Amino acid sequence: MLVETNAIVLSTLKYGDSSLIARCYCKELGLKSFLLKGILSSKKGNIKKSFFQPMSIIQLITQIKNDNRIGLYYIKEARIHYPLIEIPSDIKKNAVVLFISEVLTKTITEDGAPNLPLYHFIEKNVIYLEEKVFSPLFHLKFMIELSQNLGFYPNQTGIEEPFFDLESGCFSGFSSSKYQIGGDLALAFKKLLNTRFELLNEIRIPNPLRIELLNVLIDYFNLHLQGFGKIKSVDILHEIFR
């Protein structure tokens, strides 16, 4: 069966000398891995290596077979659905996209039924990052909102309380866990939680506090997602934003 779908490129892996395996989150199919045979050596054909940069939004046609035992699919046709111009050329936006693609690669790990709200969330915010003025808080807000699509969004009941418990995802009036944050860190977290993407440039959070917040959010994901682990691109973000 031939399926046409929009897809977001999460990551690529070199396969042999001239091929790539592209992991894409597809609007109609969910997570799928595609073998791009000979794409690194061929200068001909309609499927270009440039289509498969991190977080590229493409449209593809693939054939789905029920007896696919190796879990790799082939792309018959592909084209750019929404061109990214500023993200590849802006060092800060590009660093954030690399971070986001790594986070999504670690959170979307299994083939399954498509999740349209999750697909639309990712696509909408990649386009937002491309089109709007950059905010150094974007990746932090993205992680918070992504947690809603993954089922562990912070419970805002009692948000006026001074502590936030990463393990329970709830605010608390007293410190009773090693996974709690308080003080300026909790205040910054609340501020970010209550600010929409389009208003991020109206709030100020100092860089040292942003670094702490990022570490907190990575801990939060690790507590709620088995195997999430370390994010390698964090070091690139720290280098660019320092």
Question: What is this structure, in a nutshell?
Answer:
It is built from seven helices and nine strands, in the order E-E-E-E-E-E-H-H-H-H-E-E-E-H-H-H. It is of the alpha+beta class and about 240 residues long.
Q: Any idea how many domains?
A: 2
C-alpha Rg (nearest Å)? 19 Å
CATH superfamily of the largest domain: Recombination protein O, C-terminal domain
CATH architecture classification name of the largest domain = Up-down Bundle
Count of individual helical segments: 7
* Inertia-based shape: elongated
Strand order of the largest sheet: 5-3-2-1-4-6
Strand content: 15-25%
The unreliable regions are none
Provide structural commentary:
The chain has helices spanning 86-89, 91-107, 116-131, 138-150, 183-193, 207-224, 234-241; strands spanning 2-15, 19-26, 30-36, 57-63, 72-73, 75-82, 163-165, 170-172, 180-181. The chain folds into 2 domains: 2-84, Beta Barrel (OB fold (Dihydrolipoamide Acetyltransferase, E2P)); 88-241, Recombination protein O, C-terminal domain (de novo design (two linked rop proteins)), CATH 1.20.1440.120. The chain contains 7 helices and 9 strands. The strands form 2 sheets. The chain has a 6-stranded mixed β-sheet. The radius of gyration is 19 Å and the shape is elongated. It is α+β, with helices and mostly antiparallel strands. The N and C termini lie far apart (50 Å).
